[in-house]
Amino acid sequence: MNKEKITKFLKENVKATPVNQEKIERYINLLDIYYQLDKAIKKDGVTVTTENGAQKFTKVHPAISEKNKINASLLNIEKSFGFDESPTVILERRELL
Fold it and tell me: Which domain of life does this protein belong to (predicted)?
């Protein structure tokens, strides 16, 4: 992730208000957390095995559900920025990530 490019893009394309500045900071913070969770999943795998005494069970990595929640928050913040959802804007955002 190129945090500087994303921050620059947002600051150039979002109206400069205190509320929007806070949203940009929150957005970048959530992106950091999102990618930290991604690293944990890559390290541990998509499933984790838990041992509890004689019991042993495998379940989905808890970071996956957290990533989904953060993704929903990121999308909501993006919508609040009021970007035009034309293919050009979508392409630009993908190139930043």
Answer: Bacteria
